[in-house]
Amino acid sequence: MGWFGKSKGGADAPKAAAAVPAPVQDAPDPATARELDLAWYRWLAAAPPPRAPALIEGRILEELAGLAQAPVAGAALVPRVPDIIPQLMRTLQAEDMNAAELSRQLSQDTLLVAEVYREANRPAYLPRYHSGPPINSIQSAIMLLGQNGMRMLLARVAFRPIVSMQSGVLARRVAPVVWRQSEKAALAASLLAPGLRANAFDAYLAGLMENVGLVVAFRLLDQICGDQALPWSEEFVDGLFRHARALSARIAALWEFPEAVAAAIGAAGSPDSASLAQALALGDRLAKLRMLVDGAQFAPDDPFVTDGLSEQALTVFDKLQDEE
């Protein structure tokens, strides 16, 4: 069992012919995952011309593909989770989670305690009628958040160092944005999972983990391109996301995530993928669209954003808007 433990889805018509009604045009196809990734990458990179030559693009993709085949080297480019997190996650896996024991473990890390208080006092958790003082008891905060709320919070905290300890100008600039998208993708996937008969916490973990390979990819861009022109072609972006996703899946397995999580990351967006991968793919799509809309790249009602989204997906899309 890994540190996250086990989790419980012709010809033209003659001009003299009688007029006939114009055929009803099919609705436009939704933007493909490749088109969305292209818009997302170009917004993230925000690189003016000139563009990197094909030789540089090929070198980056070759190195990234190599890391996906040797995930230990890729994992070395991102920090590991704090030592206390595995201990806390094991406690949270227990069916009879003990709030007092969890409080004792949490007290070893003041930053974690602050995170729990902050989360418990968010409007999403406080009852609408709550008008009293903020929650200031750690056990009360734990009980308010519940088992799943605590698991998601700790998973989020565990991943934060991945974006806070980046080197290179480009990686330092884009990593916080990638992290925000990861948080939104995790939330969206967890909300969509029950409707697909997938495990909500597995979906949350997959959302947080999916972009680890992308962070590594931007570090490679820093190392190879430096302050020179960046890659921009559609073929490069397609390869970048494909190899980054494969690397994320391999690192997830290396870090002993649940097998279903690593498999979902590797299969997200593939036809006939399992329900968890479907939840992840849609959650990732909604999060990217949300970030692009909030970044003034598209209007909320632009067909690029809304086409192909169900009523449920649009509801989740709205929930991803920042609270502040």
* Portion of residues within helices: 55-70%
Low-confidence stretches: 6-26
Backbone CA Rg:
22 Å
| Cα separation of the termini | 38 Å
Number of structural units classed as domains? 2
H/E element string? HHHHHHHHHHHHHHH
Content of β-strand: under 5%
Note the main sheet. none
Count of beta strands = 0
Q: What's the overall average pLDDT, rounded? A: 84
Content-based structural category: mainly alpha
Number of continuous helical runs:
15
Shape: globular
Question: Can you give a write-up of this model?
Answer:
It holds the Pfam family HDOD. Residues 1-28 are annotated as: Disordered. Residues 78-271 form the HDOD domain. The protein has 2 domains: 32-79 and 167-324, no CATH class; 80-164, no CATH class. Helices cover 62% and strands 0% of the residues. It is globular and about 60 Å long. The chain has 324 residues and is an all-alpha fold. Helix 6 crosses helix 7 (138-164) and helix 12 (259-267) crosses helix 13. It contains 15 helices and no strands.
Key phrases:
single chain, 324 residues, mainly alpha, 2 domains, globular
Summarize the model shown.
With 324 residues, this protein is mostly helical.
What is the secondary structure topology, with strand pairs?
Elements: H1 33-45, H2 54-69, H3 71-75, H4 84-93, H5 99-106, H6 110-120, H7 138-164, H8 169-192, H9 200-209, H10 212-225, H11 234-254, H12 259-267, H13 275-294, H14 303-306, H15 311-319
Helix pairs in contact: 1-11, 1-13, 2-10, 2-11, 4-5, 4-7, 5-7, 6-7, 7-8, 7-9, 8-9, 8-10, 8-13, 9-12, 9-13, 10-11, 11-12, 12-13, 13-15
